[in-house]
Automatic annotation (TrEMBL):
One of its GO terms (molecular function) is tRNA (guanosine(9)-N1)-methyltransferase activity. The keyword Nucleotide-binding does not apply. The keyword Transferase applies. The gene is Trmt10b. GO terms for biological process: tRNA N1-guanine methylation. This is tRNA (guanine(9)-N(1))-methyltransferase.
Length: 134
């Protein structure tokens, strides 16, 4: 067990998170939110908005959260990282669920968004920390 096992509780259930937690404690993480996640609050429940699909559907997770009247937030990628020049001219703030988890767990351990984003956002996404720009 890591020190995070006490911080992040995971499990599976047939029940909806809407039935398990008070609405005001739920924060739905989606790259399309206008709200920036500034800190991880241990009293909040973070839903990692994700789809198992080959293609990216813009604003689908945001729409789902809004339909459920949930708070939303996005990782502070734009605030701490810069777009890098790449051959595909590709830049995406959409991460896989495991990458989002890596970012959140690293942030919780270090309290450093740069360290957390470095741990979870691969350079293939087209973003790097400013000190990594050549």
């Amino acid at each position: 067990f890591s020190s995070l096992s006490c911080i992040f509780q995971m499990g599976t259930t047939q029940e909806s998170y809407l039935d398990l937690f008070p609405l005001d404690t739920i924060v739905y993480l989606t790259p399309d939110s206008e709200n920036v996640l500034e800190d991880v609050d241990p009293k909040k429940v973070y839903i990692l908005g994700g789809l198992v699909d080959e293609s990216i559907h813009k604003k689908l997770t945001l729409q789902r959260a809004q339909d459920q009247s949930l708070q939303t937030a996005r990782l502070p990628i734009r605030e701490y990282m810069v777009k890098t020049i790449n051959t595909k001219n590709y830049h995406s703030e959409t991460l896989a669920i495991n990458q989002v988890f890596d970012v959140l767990s690293t942030y919780y351990e270090t309290r450093s968004w740069p360290a957390a984003l470095k741990a979870g956002v691969s350079s293939g996404k087209g973003y790097v920390l400013p000190d990594a720009v050549n």
